[in-house]
Amino acid sequence: MSFAEKLTRLQVFLDADELHEEALDYVAAHGYLTALSICAEDVPEREWIDALFSEPPQYSDIAQQTEVEATLVALKAHIARQLASDEEFELPCDLD
């Protein structure tokens, strides 16, 4: 599965109504990961994942949990690479 496909699946998961009302949706999660990428202190992975969801989500199975969390980690790394490079930063939504 391509990175773009994984991001689409992550967006569907984060934007679902089944998550806790204080959980971050995809756009907010992208902003959160961007902030973590420029943070002076490294925040432990488990800590920022737990904070993003506010309450543990109801995954359909362990495979879904693994996929969602791995995609979040990959997205954070992707954002950090973009910020460190000269390439244009990809926004998670259109600014109209």
Automatic annotation (TrEMBL):
Instruction: List each coiled-coil range.
Output: none
Q: Which InterPro entries match?
A: YgfB-like, YgfB-like_sf
Fetch the SUPFAM superfamilies from UniProt: YgfB-like (SSF101327)
The family database entries (Pfam families) matched by this protein are listed as:
UPF0149
Q: What is this protein called?
A: YecA family protein
Source organism per entry reads Pseudomonas syringae pv. avii
